[in-house]
Design goal:
By secondary structure, the protein is mostly helical. The protein is built from 6 helices and no strands.
């Protein structure tokens, strides 16, 4: 887990204004790794969220006056996506399911996908009250690219 977090931080870059109070930009990789390893799980999560938010804000070039409101809506969106995803137990082997069980799982996956899409639409509307439609679209593109990068780094089953 620590290795994944460290890798993600390296990919996303280090924001100079991280909440933990260390100068991440000017630390050498070994010192960064040591600092991350010394954080509690909650601090690591907070740091990762801060880095993610900073990266998104920088990537979208969000006006400083809108950053607080955007971050609030964006974090709410991500939390809702996470809650929706947690409703589906993806830990199963399709080959071990009966035909009926597979149909149920398939239907559940469609319902989950629809809930995720509905949530995405809802928050796209909220975000457009803070940032332009172009920036919302860019956010969703970036989100997909980050997910693809993370999946590339996951060990194969």
């Amino acid at each position: 887990m620590k290795k994944i977090i460290f890798t993600v931080l390296m990919i996303w870059g280090f924001a100079a204004h991280a909440q933990i109070g260390l100068d991440w930009k000017n630390m050498n990789p070994k010192a960064r790794k040591e600092a991350i390893n010394n954080l509690s799980p909650d601090e690591r999560k907070q740091l990762l969220n801060q880095f993610r938010n900073n990266m998104v804000i920088d990537n979208l070039d969000i006006d400083p006056k809108d950053q607080g409101e955007f971050t609030e809506v964006y974090n709410e969106y991500l939390e809702n996506q996470k809650k929706i995803k947690s409703q589906f137990d993806g830990n199963f082997n399709p080959d071990n399911l009966s035909e009926e069980e597979a149909k149920v799982k398939l239907q559940q996956s469609f319902e989950l996908g629809q809930k995720l899409l509905d949530n995405r639409k809802k928050y796209a509307e909220k975000m457009q009250k803070v940032i332009s439609s172009q920036k919302v679209l860019k956010l969703f593109q970036t989100e997909g690219m980050m997910r693809d990068k993370m999946n590339e780094r996951k060990p194969k089953r």
